[in-house]
Amino acid sequence: MQVTRLRVYPVKSFAGRDVASAVVRPWGLEGDRRWGVVEPDGTPVTARERNALLGLTAEPLSDGGLLLVGAGDAEPLRVDPPVDATPIPVGHSRQREAMPAGDEADAWLSERMRMPLRLVWQPDPLQRPVNPAHGGLPGEGLSLADAGPLLLASEASLAQLNAWTPDDVPPLDVVRFRPNVVVDGDEPFAEDAWRRVRIGGVRFRFGEVCDRCVMTTIDPDTLARGKEPIRTLARHRKWDGATWFGVRLIPELDGDAGARIAVGDEVAID
């Protein structure tokens, strides 16, 4: 079994991007969801409520900056992590405060989304603990991802889901599930039972099976909403009042230095 895709989401709820390799940090992949979108009062805004966020992209720059890229002919905007800004309250769970990116970034984002919004930066992911209810242990930190540092999805599981889906529904792309790591897999949904995984030279602990929300029903290309995959998952993968696909993983690293994983790395179950 091996890694077939790696994806990062520099801004929470923006479109993701494929990468050939990525550094694993204790809180997730480097460059993954350290930026977020909030209303002026700090209330988080995601693509669950504002589908159009998925039409925006962001490219991490080698010097630590971020390039915001809009749809169509929108002029890209460079943004640097704020260092001297005054933190503002935000409503991300267990986050409390974040650093505002500044007026120029806010104006760019607000114009694209046609509503007043702010772009914020998470300065220290170790200050946001992984909830014990989602498999976290004391001292483990988290980016602005919903519940776990990394999300792994299996091509074998996706193939089974597409086989279950009605014939008049085009095959679903794994991008809908916003994974960080995609593996070719073996048996469909075998990942539900994994307890420790080694990807290349990095070990991960199983956090939980991932419950899926309405965001998976948004077509990442057209931004139109439909009924899949929730409708089909509800027939085959529903328990505890939710539908389930993919697993959340928690890195087991020595210190904060990080370690690199890459497409093509071997995946082993320890």
How would you describe the overall organization of this protein?
By secondary structure, this protein is mainly beta. The chain folds into two domains: 170 residues, PK beta-barrel domain-like (M1 Pyruvate Kinase, Domain 3), CATH 2.40.33; 90 residues, no CATH class. The protein is 10% helix and 31% strand. The mean pLDDT is 94.
Write the layout of secondary structure elements.
Elements: E1 3-8, E2 17-19, E3 21-25, E4 28-29, E5 35-38, E6 57-60, E7 66-69, E8 77-79, E9 88-89, E10 97-100, H1 103-113, E11 118-121, E12 150-154, H2 155-164, E13 181-183, E14 196-199, E15 202-212, H3 230-236, E16 238-239, E17 242-252, E18 259-262, E19 267-269
Parallel strand pairs: 12-13
Antiparallel strand pairs: 1-2, 1-13, 3-4, 3-18, 5-11, 6-7, 7-8, 9-10, 10-11, 12-17, 14-15, 14-19, 15-17, 16-17
CATH class of the largest domain: Mainly Beta
CATH superfamily of the largest domain: PK beta-barrel domain-like
Total number of beta strands? 19
Q: What is the level-2 CATH architecture name of the largest domain? A: Beta Barrel
Q: Which stretches are low in confidence, meaning pLDDT under 50 for 5 or more residues running?
A: none
Mean pLDDT, to the nearest integer, reads 94
